[in-house]
Amino acid sequence: MAEASAPAQSGILGWIERTGNKLPDPVFLFFYLIAGLVVVSIVAALTGVSALHPTEIDQTTGSALVIESVSLLSADNIQRLWVEMPKTFTHFHPLGYVLVVMLGAGVAERSGFFAAGMAKAVKSAPKALLTPVVALVAMLGNHAADAGYVVLIPLAGILFAAAGRHPLAGIAAAFAGVSGGFSANISPGQLDALLFGITEEAVAASSLDPAWTANIAGNWYFISAMTVLFLPIIWYVTDKIIEPRLGPWVGNVAAEFEDGTGPDPTQHDGELASKGLRHAGLAALFVVGLWLLMVFAPGTPLINEAACLAEDGAPIPDCSIHSELRPLYQSLVAAFFLLFLLTGWAYGRAAGVITNHRDLVNMMAESMKDMGYYLVLAFAASHFVAMFEWSNLGLISAVHGASAIQATGLPLPIVLGLMVIFAGLLNLFVGSASAKWALLAPILVPMLMLLGISPEGATAAYRVGDSATNIITPLMVYFPLILVFAQRWQKDFGLGSLTAMMMPYSVWLLISGTLLIVIWFYLGIPLGPDAPVTYVLPGSGS
Length: 542
Known about the structure:
24 helices; 2 strands; transmembrane; AbgT; secondary active p-aminobenzoyl-glutamate transmembrane transporter activity
């Protein structure tokens, strides 16, 4: 498949492309921000920038503790930077979460399990339900990382063409689901581990709630609702807006791929793939059964029965069941690791991709090689977050920012909605979800906590904006690849054509996602198990 160069764009799209291309790589963006942070910390320390801690009391005066800005060039901070550098990096919360999950997900991806599962689901769809099935599988496929883009999107174009429909409509529906609905799913996964790891780091750095720990199921209910909401939107936009504009399809599927340069429609099909999927299903049942056993069996390790008992053994009144289930929630990272590992292994063994234990180990090692860039990014981001904490500027900014928002009188749901839009706009220029959240979380998470919005609520609002505009920015890493897939069917299809085709999806996903988070907050529905949307600071008495 030959790549065609994208034409230069004018107008707002051209400005976005030119401006975004001038930005440094996210790794160096963090290094530049660290340099700027050092300068700001010096100025803040010299001018006496400070704030009153919202919960802690100065024992000597009995008044609220004064948080003073600290120069990052102070002797203590310089020593901390060099002495604690290994600790700063390795103790970065997202690092462990993501690497553990990806050890398993890498096997599921490289064995072909993810690709075969998505291909099987889409190919089995009735013609009348082709669009919603493609959209649903695409949204669920964000657990499959690259496979969603590389396998499902070109496959959707082939299946639409085979059904007599325009293949670009299939590509659009799949792209909208995989990337526009990037955070939507029916279960947590590696993205949740990544984002909540950064959220936990931000909460810890703020010192507002030292007892708060990340629960990667903290947005489970919300992302499930996003899936239900986004599915009919993608279906409607594809069938009623995009496909009518594209017009009828008059091409020939076989002719388009007779040179062998296109994606092979049968690559992830056949008896071996079916056998592999059956074995993977049995492996999945084993993992689910194992976790159920550890929850319901006597003396289970994943239920903390003592959490709702006082020291004298008496039951604690109004103690939430979620307190007892906290070990279960914290075990979900390991659960997804084992689920992906065993299903991928079972599929690979049955399909002949994995012949011995060395193949399995090699797949795990290759998945870690793919995480090389993330490790470099995590090194830069971890020091940015840590130095924000050392300077006290994160908490000071959060306190003053919360006061400024309170002074405007804006309702909190509107504040969340504005955060969604802000994240969506920033996403046009900085594509990495983890880079943006590592940049924003140290200020936004504690600021929203001070306003009464939980860390889970801040994370949910961010991920709505981060997903919706993925499909219209030329800076998204897979954007050129999608352009190549589209040009396979329409030679003159350019960057502007792709952006214009995806714009209705982006607008409606952003509007509907914003309304969802606003209404969710108004109704006070938990975002996940033991994850309320509202928040009360410990010891605030409110």
